[in-house]
Design a protein that fits this description.
This protein is mostly beta strands. 8% of the residues lie in helices and 58% in strands. It has a single domain, classed as Pectate Lyase C-like (3 Solenoid), CATH 2.160.20. Keywords: Signal.
Amino acid sequence: MHAAHVRSLLTATFFSLAAGVGMAQSSQSRSVGDFQAIQASGAIDVVLRQGSQTSVKVEAESDVLSSIKTEVKGNKLVIYRDNSSSSLWSRLTDSDKVKVYVTCPRLNSVEVSGASEIKSTTPFRADDFTVRASGASEVTLTLDVRNLNASASGASDLRLAGRAEQQQVHISGSSDYQAYDLKSQNAKVEASGASDAYVAVANELSSRSSGASDIHYKGNPRVRK
């Protein structure tokens, strides 16, 4: 089953008690400290932009807004739902996804879980970059990096474009890695559990697949298995 379909089913189930009920959307700007990594969970959509000034804005139904937490822990911005701080009614009527708009000057890691989504509206530049997705989540990024470490599990999708000189990829559990538009010199890709990977490699590709998984590539690399 495709990851996008699984995400839709999980989100629909999560919000089934709230069908047809909604309140007005509100937005709130948040003051946060410096960070270089983002972690999002709990059916939250994050829209990323690389810019000179840090900013965070949350959009959600008015009675849910206070339960959406945006906290910097170490160098990581953690975005999640704190259901203990919201009423039972607001939890049952939270029928729309929460959106969080994040602008930051530097970023080297994104992690998403629990039917959440992260996407960028600008390219992100870094030496090393890590992407992790699990639990029917989705990441869509444009990157300009030297070294990329990417992993997806539990029917998650990674959609990457741009450039990564080196990439190391591990996908499992009916996940997809769609990176034909991410140009790289060398790549090491492992896929298992009915997963699919699509990579563009110029120099050398190390690939290993199992359990009805496939690794597809563009370019003319030396292939090691």
